[in-house]
Model the fold of this input.
Amino acid sequence: MKQFNPDLKNSLYRELGRIRGFENGHYKDDQYQVPAETNSDGNMALAIALNRNSDILERLEENGIIAYMSKDLANVKKMRDELERLQKIENKAKINI
Done:
């Protein structure tokens, strides 16, 4: 927050003052301290979970997923509407080229 314009900071503090829990003012930066590492086993488990989560998300990004839709009329209509919208966009792109 030190790099922000003072007017912007004051505006943010006024907005925060409207939120429950911040009525008495904003929290100062010097009140926060990084907690000492107390539970290395817990931190290791958290690191393992984060790594696994990252691996799963990377695989999803690379390979995608298969989605199944129900065959009810509402979904069919939505799909038809979206295909028509896509066709209109493609037709406009052809004209502009």
User: Anything to note?
Assistant: The first helix runs from residue 6 to 17. The chain has a mean pLDDT of 80. Residues 43 and 57 are 21 Å apart (CA to CA). Residues 67-97 form one domain.
